[in-house]
Amino acid sequence: LSGEQPYRTAYHFQPPKNWMNDPNGPMYYKGVYHLFYQFNPYGAVWGNISWAHSISYDLVDWVHLEPAINPSDPFDINGCWSGSTTFLPGEKPAILYTGDDIKNRQVQNLAVPKNVSDPLLIEWVKSPHNPLLTPIDDIDPQNFRDPTTAWQGPDRLWRVIVGSKINGSGMAILYRSRDFVEWIRSDNPLHSSTKTGMWECPDFYPVSANNTNGEEKFSKHVLKASFKNQDHCILGNYMPMTDKFEVDTDFLDEGLDLRYDYGNFYASKTFYDSGKKRRILWGWVIESDSESNDIEKGWSGLQSIPRSVVLSGTGRQLMQWPIKEIEKLRTNKVSFHEKEVKDGFIFEVPGITASQADVEVSFDLPNLDEAESLDPNWVDPQLLCSQKGASGRGRVGPFGLLVLASKDLTEQTAVFFRIFRRHDNYVVLMCSDQSRSSLREGLGKTIYGAFVHIDHREKKISLRSLIDHSIIESFGGDGRTCITARVYPKLAIHTESRLYVFNNGTLSVRISSLNAWSMKRAQIFPMQNRRKQQ
Ligand code: FRU
């Protein structure tokens, strides 16, 4: 193992080599999951972008196929950029993607499968009508990209949105079409914002709350836009007759800035899995190492573990959870129950491969009433996490996990909570602190933080972390708040890596249960192997 690259992952999606960015056009078709992604066939940096293509039966094991769409024509010769798939009547998939055209203008193109009876959809043909949408009138040719999955209105017309920026406002331009070829721009965008800058990779979809005890299920629409290296979401009510989207809160609203992930997670995209009747989210997790190191290791970029997305019972936030299928990789289970973690205490979770693991822990908070009070000036959770790090003392917390830690703890990533009192309520702060993640220099080690909005009457909080060599995906409060980080330890690699539980609060917390597993390697087959097997 020691000869193996320490930062390649075992169960996160990544190509055999080279650069990867956005997930594109994910779908479930005739029993097969498809993932396309932005890919450079020639190197570990961004460029020569094509749509690489992989397939899976369970979203865990993958077969890499040849790229589905490559730059070839005047309408996409400088790159086949992000886009989405839509099912046309008769369950015929169609891809809308952005072409960087011969004049470096961004245009929207259509591609369809050569043979729809092939469940692997290996070959795609570009429409003779391309480009379908061009940057005319007030549309900036450099800010016009990433078409969503289209949807049909009550009038049978197709709708699609495209990310843009016009007169300084980020927006989703709306188009309508009868035949999916000729598109007419709507007078009004679906939504826009003066605060955001350009919207990349918009996504728009219905989401509902899990149906508990027969109560009426309600649903909302999510609009996601990618800007400032972050994926932001808003919830609202969409009126399909008029295409009005009435939002509950808006992008970057103070105190209510919903994000899928408060760490490293960008240009994400969802799809509806008609097989398992769920909405699944993929997101790109970029390296935080230097470009020269990316080139040296020969690759750059991961995809998050696919996450199911539902609306919380309050209807005010989203909840995400790693797809169930990933649990098939769990092995070597270690458990603790009803274990008190006293003031200043730290203990190791032994017996697992801590560099490749899945950990779920649930903490009871018997001493909540004695939590320290939150200074009303402390409004920025990320700043709070850096100022009140894992080693500082608090009352209820900091408590949580030290992951990818070296034996001497000189390397460690702390994923933890700290709880404050505000008026007669509580505020849960969740942090992922990468500042001591590696003895190596020249890495991005940003500390991430966010609040977790839970029901405090329950007096407990859960944390799950998926650890995979150079990525840590953490889900707080049953997936109400997610934080993903990239780390590159020098010592804490392979079997030298350890996992600990700690409490640096002066008050005890109690682990009601902790389950940790080593994770097996997902099976990834390159195209060549598949051919040989035939
Ligand atoms: C987002 C993005 C998209 C674009 C693609 C190009 O990361 O910039 O807006 O289509 O990547 O690779």
Report what the structure shows.
The structure is a single chain. About 5% of the residues lie in helices and about 50% in strands. The longest helix has 7 residues, at about 290-295. It has three helices and 38 strands. Mean pLDDT is about 95; it is low at about 530-534. The chain is mainly beta. Strands 26, 28, 29, 30, 31, 32 and 36 form a seven-stranded mixed β-sheet that branches. Strands 21-1-2-3-4-38 form a six-stranded mixed β-sheet. Strands 9, 10, 11, 12, 13 and 14 form a six-stranded antiparallel β-sheet that branches. A hairpin with a 3-residue loop joins strand 5 (about 80-90) and strand 6. Bound molecules: beta-D-fructofuranose. Beta-D-fructofuranose binds near residues 22 and 267.
Element layout with pairings:
Elements: E1 18-29, E2 32-40, E3 50-56, E4 62-69, E5 80-88, E6 92-100, E7 106-113, E8 124-126, E9 144-145, E10 151-152, E11 158-166, E12 169-177, E13 183-185, E14 191-193, E15 200-208, E16 219-227, E17 230-239, E18 244-247, E19 266-273, E20 278-285, H1 291-297, E21 299-300, E22 302-303, E23 307-311, E24 318-322, E25 330-341, E26 345-348, E27 356-364, E28 372-373, H2 381-387, E29 396-405, E30 413-422, E31 425-433, E32 447-452, E33 460-468, E34 471-476, E35 481-486, E36 498-503, E37 509-519, E38 524-525, H3 527-533
Parallel strand pairs: 1-21, 4-38, 28-30
Antiparallel strand pairs: 1-2, 2-3, 3-4, 5-6, 6-7, 7-8, 9-11, 10-11, 11-12, 12-13, 12-14, 15-16, 16-17, 17-18, 19-20, 20-22, 20-23, 23-24, 25-37, 26-36, 27-33, 27-37, 29-30, 29-36, 30-31, 31-32, 33-34, 34-35
The structure holds beta-D-fructofuranose (FRU).
Beta-D-fructofuranose (FRU) is lined by residues 21-22, 38, 49, 81-82, 98, 145-146, 200-201, 267.
